[in-house]
Amino acid sequence: MLGIDHRAATLAFRERIAAAVADLPSVMGHLRAHAAEAAVLSTCNRTELYLVGADPEQGVRCLSHVTQTPPEQFADSLAARAGADAASHLFAVAAGLESQLLGETQVLGQVRDAYYAAKEVGGLGPVLGTMFRYALSVGKRARAQTGISRGAASIGSAAADIVKTELPTAARRRALIVGAGEAAERVLAHLQPLRIGRIDVANRTVARAEALVAPPGQALPLDAIADALTEADLAIFAVAVPHPILGRDVARAVVARRAQRPLLLLDLAVPRNVAPGVGELPGVRLYDVDEVQGRAALAVERRQGEVEAVRALVAAQVAQFEEWMHARRAAAQIVRLRDRAEALRQEEVRRATAGLSGRERAAVDRATRAVLRSLLHGPTVALRKADDPRVADLLAEAFKRTRVRDGVDAAPVLART
Length: 417
Fold this sequence. Notes:
alpha/beta; Beta Polymerase, domain 2; Rossmann fold; 3 domains; four-stranded antiparallel sheet; 16 helices; 11% strand
């Protein structure tokens, strides 16, 4: 796993990287040229590549290429994990332990989206497919079996708290939600109890906006945002686009038409939907996603008592994943060993039974098969228990070097091997 998150990377850097990986088919095409399996997880707080069959240097080159970012720019923000550590990290992300908002629920859906997106473009194989399924499983159990996600600590509740603080009830006449995805839907649910007179929803697909809006609100296209902002008291942006949809020039024109009425803007998107300079305009108060999540962080304190229980679930899931990986490696090693031994047996049977009748050849074949099964039982058990993949290679090499001379019974030689 290679990635950046809110702990080490600024919002500006995160949004640039998130925008760069938005074209998933193109990104995955490059990743698959260097890795056997690949998946991209992109959330408000992180962008991470999960790769199988690529070494760390290849991974960094891939990340640099798909994001058009020189490797040195990642020097202070890039995290790299391998093996069980990478699995443990993904499981912790899905369980809400790695979010800026401890226990937030949206990230589990984002892990699920990453899984299906990678599956659709052919990025998943047996390892990442299993790892993501394990991550989704532990994420669900963490929320069902612990209190890690209980309470009002979420983007939606934080947004509602800001609205209550910034706007008195009488000033909550009209609101605009820009976006109609999961984040917008969650925020809308938290706004409804605030007695806002009218809530409009703008979206690229108006039909999706219509599914969220309730009278007297209206569903609007994105190009109607400027007019809607002229009348709104607050607007919340949550659209997945690579560039701001509300720039400073348009916002300045909106402010000029508002007759000095204050305007509250909450930008929950990464990359940002609202250009940073908009917050400097007179009468405009702009919160970006980091500020909104920081507001909710206070409510997270009560969840801290659940962290150890969730970490225990994650650790147990990692152990199960490691067992699965070991069984998978052992199975491949066992097949390799048996194939080599069987090839040797057939070679020697052909040489030793030349001139014998069909009945005699069949008897020799049955006897040598039985001997081989007996000989391989111990090594097979050892391989299933061993952690060192070199064991299978050493055993296979021993069979490879075994050559039985004409007239010599094969069984003692195989037994010594």
